[in-house]
Target: SPFH domain/Band 7 family protein
Amino acid sequence: MFGINYIKSDPSTHLIQYQKGRAVKQGVGMSFYYFGPKTSLVAVPVTSKELPFAFRLQSEDFQRVTVQGQVTYRISDAEAVSKMLNFTIDKKGKYLSEDPQKLDERVLRSVQVLLRDNIQQQQLKASLSMAPKLVKELDTALQSNKALADLGVTIVDVSIVAISPTPETEKALEAEIREQLLKEADDAIYERRLASIDQEKRVKESELETEVAMQRKEQEIQETKIEAERAVMKKRNVLNEENMQAAIAEEEQRQSLIELETGNEKAKADTSAYSIEKQLKAYDSVPAEVLKALAMSKMAPAQLIAQSFENLTQEGNKVGNLNISPELLQSLIK
Model:
């Protein structure tokens, strides 16, 4: 009535009243009367807003990937954004332009540019697994983004739900990964076999080493026995040599004794021969009949009878009859 209007904003809206190009009233959750012909009202929502996104980007190896996520922002400086964009409302509270919707586009465009710059520097496989790293880089870059700061926008949170390739590429990657997994499974089987073979080889080597050690020990025992036998034989040889030396010394003494005895016997024989020779020389001058008579004087009666029988058979003596009495014969036999 008469151009006087009433407006009331909720606690999530920053309301600014402009008159003659100057802000005369502003705040959150305000209500007041104003004169419509001379007043402009700007309503800026200050609650956080979530913007889901899904961008199709290209990796360094020219492969298409889709990045899905969400960015949450809020307007922290309502006066600054009102100077950059038109948030003017009519008396019914409707916006007079489409600039409020453009703010969402600007935020999403900033996110898209940053995502594009990061994805274009990565190969396909690397880009598919870089979501955590990409979230950190996005959060840092958006917080320091000058365009968003000039708009009075603050990024509350950013998240990436998925990074996925095209269906055809995904099938190819699945096939490649499947083959790789099968290969890894085969490699694991081969590694287990190799480990088993290596373990068996170690067991055999250990057995061989044990056998070699036992043989070496037996060889050492045999060598010890041989050395002991050699020492015994050496001592026995020394003992035999000592015995032989003793026997040789004994034989040498015996030989010396025999030689001495032989010399003595020879000396005795020489003395006896010399005595006999002297006796014979003494008998050379004595007649044979005298010597014979002297010899017969020492004979026993039997020897004299025998000598008589012998004399009868010499020098052509002939005996016609010879009578021997039994008593004589008996005495001769005895």
Summary: The chain has a mean pLDDT of 83. The longest strand covers residues 153-165.
